Amino acid sequence: MITRIEVTSTVSDSRAQVRKKRLFADGFKSKIKDLWITDVYTLDKSFSSDQLQTIATALANPVTQKAVVRVENSKHEARNPKQYQNTNDKNSKLLKGKLFSWVFEIGFLPGVTDNVASTTKEIIKDFLKTKFTKGESVYTSQITFLSGDLLETEVKDIANNFFNPLIQRVHIKSYPQFRKDGGMNFVVPKVLIKTKPKILEINLNVTDDELKNIGKSGIKNSDGIGRGPLALDLFYMKTIQSYFRILGRNLTDIELESLAQTWSEHCKHTIFADPIDEIKDGLFKSYIKKATDEIRKEKGKKDFCVSVFEDNSGAIEFDDKYLITHKVETHNSPSALDPFGGSITGIVGVNRDTIGFGLGAKPVANCYGFCLSDPRKDIPLYKGPNFTAKMLSSRRIVDGVIEGVNAGGNQSGIPTSAGFLYFDERYRGKPLVFVGTVGLIPRKIKGKKSYVKKARSGDLIVMIGGRVGKDGVHGATFSSETMDAGSPVSAVQIGDPITQKKLSDAIVKEARDLLLYNSITDNGAGGLSCSVAEMAKESGGCEVDLDKVPLKYVGLDPWEIWVSESQERMTLAVPAKNWKIFYDLMKRRGVEASVIGKFTNSKKCIVRFRGKIIMDIEMQFLHYGLPTKKLTTSYEPEEFSLLKIPPIKDLTHQLHRLLERLNIASYSFISQQYDHLVQGGSVLAPLQGRGRVNADATVFRPILESQRGVVLSGGLYPSYSDIDSYNMAASSIDTAIRNAVATGADPEYIALLDNFCWCSSDDPYRLGQLKRAAKACYDYALAYRTPFISGKDSMFNDFKGYDSDGKQIKISIPPTLLISSIGVVLDITKVVSLDTKNPGDLIYILGETYDELGGSEYLRMLNLKSGHVPNVDAIKNLKLYKTLYKTIEKGIIASSISIGRGGLAIALSKKSLGGMLGISVTLADLPGEQTRDDYAIFSESQGRLVVTIDPKNQNEFEKFMKGNSFALIGKVTKEQSVHIRGMNGKTIVKAGLKEMKRSYTKTFEGY
Q1: What is the mean predicted confidence (pLDDT) over 747-762?
Q2: Deepest in the core among 60, 355, 413, 688, taking most CB within 10 A?
Q3: Contact 520/356 with Cβ under 8 angstroms?
Q4: What is the pLDDT of residue 280?
Q5: pLDDT tens digits, residue range 852-870?
Q6: Which DSSP letter does residue 195 get?
Q7: pLDDT value at residue 492
Q8: What is the distance of C-alpha 955 from the center of its chain?
Q9: Hey, where are the domains in the chain?
Q10: Residues contacting 477, CB < 8 A, separation 6+
């Protein structure tokens, strides 16, 4: 029996209001009179009438909602005229007192993760004390009712704004049809796989052209349909060919798929590992890791690193009892296909990286960063020719990635403490979605080092959490490729934070501290094929029985079970003696746990299906058989002189324009919806001051009984890459450190994470840019004594497809490097926020300003590609940062802000807006060399900060600062304005705070 429970709000529904605003912005204001939403729960299970009423009561708020129960092919089916009444209006009809003319329903396609349905299922189980047997389930959808004079084509356009054909279905009806049918149709999106699971034998004794095609397009099933990319080029395919020739047999499809996942750029990071030019050991070992090794050796006993580049996250000391971990991931390709699914999977995935660190760290903070294209412009792109396979609009991507990280963080009970937005039109083909998680773990558990883990031969291979489906098949290989018409739908996953929260609590709060397992890792890229095989390196081998892996539905091929990236799963090594205790614990916590094999010391990875060995590969070849390539570069940076811009006497208008820029404007609409207060540790919030200004660094307290805090920040300057990728990387490092120091972090106690997102990484020019950026990471990490503890790279962020004219195009992102910083604040009572505090406070600039506007937001606003990217003087800057840290420790600093994107004028504006107090400054004594007033206030020279102090502290402050470049430039005033005088003493900016606030906040109004 199929039942629909339809729940409609009887009061104003904020979701409907947001949707209405969105449609009004899209040009439908004159067409739509009203809009409202009904939530639908489809139950594929027999229930009595009383039970259905109980369920309906549980799903609807009796004060604000009304539930209607409809049963398929039953007298209970709701067709009565009281529900759907006629009126005299021929074009519109009435539903419960509301007029509507069209309706559309959106639900998930079969097999797509439906988080709300999963929660609903749990509610029904709890309320009715019932079980769902095989084949019985719950599905959700949403009906949108539209009132207005709309054509069917317009309704289709509206529906297309709210559904993604990759993962969702839509059904549209006019009122007459709706009434005739008695409502919307009964749809059960159940997965039905009619074919039997198959194991294919692959013959690689073919021509090089055929080998190349298999590596690029993938294996074809027996019906001739391709499975999707393997991301293995001819060089790799010939290595696999040779290996199996020596064995004297063909390989199975699961063996080839497993090698593709394990050897993918996404997992092996070959571009960073392979020799490049004269660098034999590759960029990672020679630059990133080498810098960290040298810094740790130099620090000696003061080394605060504990685990770097060895585990799912990096870890540093927090205090004598605890470590803090950090990891930042990217989820770019999936987010281009399904922004919500891509970003929520990214954030819950990096949460699992934290849970999978050592014996399991507790996630205590999330962070995010989105590199996107302008959502106010709709520039159609197509993956296929003849206007087929249309990409989602930039607005859909912006909305989706924001919503996904919201759902992942808020529903997991993890505070989202820091984040940023960055816009460039070159992210239109492929957005970048950065997500990170900070974890907390005791140094020791029952005397055992918590960060040391090792699967032992004889340990049971245990999979816990969600079940396996087709979602996430080829996720790793897909992310190692350029996005084009062959990008697979199955690569899309949707994370379930509720399921994962149960898993997280059961592991971190209970099983870990009982030492019930020897090792743990998450099932991320490559699913079981990577998690099991990676852990098997610790023991020396493994044997897996795929028949024992819990599935979402029957009919999956063995290779799909093995490589699927279905979410909320982790793999553990559990000693046989602990299995019953572990299983009982998981069962009590509602976490599914299954033994799927055992770890061995056989030096082989063996996989069975229905009693037959279908994979038998030596561990050595699986993990280390990947051949190295010799990479070469051919890069010379372009020279850009600063073009002469006609001087402007009054720069007030330019300042307002900058405040409205996407990369500077307030994104408080995100900060307000991302919960940063949960767990109760927020110290310096994402929005600071009375004016609620977005901060560049935040501080939180992971242990409420401790006065120590954790500071998070970052630096990112993609526009600098167009001119000089070396100084781009240097500026990103300097900014990440400076932002943290501005709050009160000790510059000697800051660690870094690198996330390289590059494009066309088989192009020698792009590789040359990458090499220079990596060299800068080495040079400046050493100079600042800030070790790298973790990192990630994503190398092929390109889109190949067609534009709105049907012409072939390629869109490559600007080479992008996110440097994240994490530090420890010894006393949270001494941290400093950005906002001005008191009228009369003195304003100082620290650091030197030059005509360094290359890649700056000011020149981008003027559509100019010219000038020099800022040069970073690490020796001067580090001396300044150490001095500033001492003054903050002494309590001398009232407020502090790092000067970044937009330059001095934007930093002053944010301070003023934050405190809702005026400022008056002059540029006459600005340290450095500046030739013009606009260059002086909009230059993005690095190593600079603006601080305010109480006048009574002036002498002490200047005594501390002696030997550094600094200047007193003005004071905080009671006037509600920002007043800047130029180098000759004449006013160049006079802007009222009310007008500035309007400029700063209006860009994202309505989001």
Answers
A1: 95
A2: 355
A3: yes
A4: 95
A5: 999 999 999 999 988 999 9
A6: S
A7: 63
A8: 46
A9: 2-181
A10: 228, 229, 230, 231, 260, 261, 264, 266
CA count, 13 A, side-chain hemisphere, 699: 27
Q: What is the mean pLDDT of residues 445-460?
A: 96
Instruction: Count the residues in the chain.
Output: 1007
The separation between the first and the last C-alpha atoms of the chain, rounded to the nearest angstrom, is 41
Nearest to 856 by CA among 1001, 717, 682, 692: 717
Q: What six digits make up the tokens of 133?
A: 């047997």
Any bridge partners for residue 954, and if so which? Answer: none
Please choose, from the candidates 255, 168, 268, the residue with its C-alpha nearest in 3D space to the C-alpha of residue 219: 255
Residue recorded with tokens 């729960």: 41
> In the structure encoding, which two tokens stand for residue 227, read together?
């499975």
CA dist 416 and 411 (Å) reads 11
Q: Which amino acid is at 145?
A: F
Digit-coded pLDDT (tens) for 38-68: 999 999 999 999 999 999 999 999 899 999 9
For 904-936, the DSSP string reads HHHHHHHHHHHHT-EEEEE-TT-SEE-SSHHHH
Cα separation, 206 vs 211, in Å, equals: 7
Asked if 983 and 2 count as a contact pair (C-beta separation under 8 A), the reply is no
- For residue 213, the one-letter residue type is N
Extract the tokens encoding 840: 């009369």
Q: In the chain, count H helices and then E strands.
A: 31, 47
CA distances to 601, 656, 842, 924, 963 from 968, rounded to whole Å, are 68, 25, 7, 10, 15
Task: Provide the token pair at 3.
Answer: 């039942």
pLDDT band at residue 87, thresholds of 50, 70 and 90?
A: very low
Alpha carbon dihedral 223, 228, 234, 240, in 10-degree steps, equals -70
Q: So what's the pLDDT on residue 74?
A: 53
Q: What percent of the chain has pLDDT over 90?
A: 75
Q: Which position has the token pair 């100019």?
A: 864
* Cβ proximity of 427 and 537 under 8 Å: no
Give the pLDDT band (50/70/90) at residue 80: very low
Strand ranges (E), 167-296:
168-174, 201-202, 251-252
* CATH architecture for residues 2-181: 2-Layer Sandwich (3.30)
| Residue range 892-904, pLDDT digits in tens | 999 999 999 999 9
CA 918 to chain centre: 37
Q: Can you give the C-alpha Rg of the chain in angstroms?
A: 29
Nearest to 375 by CA among 337, 406, 330, 421: 421
For residues 822 and 474, the model is more confident at 822
Query: Residue 874 is encoded by which pair of tokens?
Result: 């690490």
Q: Contact 788/313 with Cβ under 8 angstroms?
A: no
Within 8 A by CB and 6+ apart from 704, the residues are 680, 681
Spatial separation of the C-alpha atoms in residues 885 and 742, rounded to whole Å: 8
699 has which bridge partners?
A: 684, 711
- Are 166 and 489 in contact by the 8 Å Cβ rule? The answer is yes
Q: Which of 965, 926, 923, 912 is nearest to 943 (CA)?
A: 965
DSSP 412-437: TT--EEEEEEEE-GGGSSS-EEEEEE
What's 215's DSSP letter? H
Which region among 458-472, 779-793, 910-924 has the lowest average model confidence (pLDDT)? 458-472
* Model pLDDT for residues 636-650, shown as the tens digit of each residue: 877 788 888 888 888
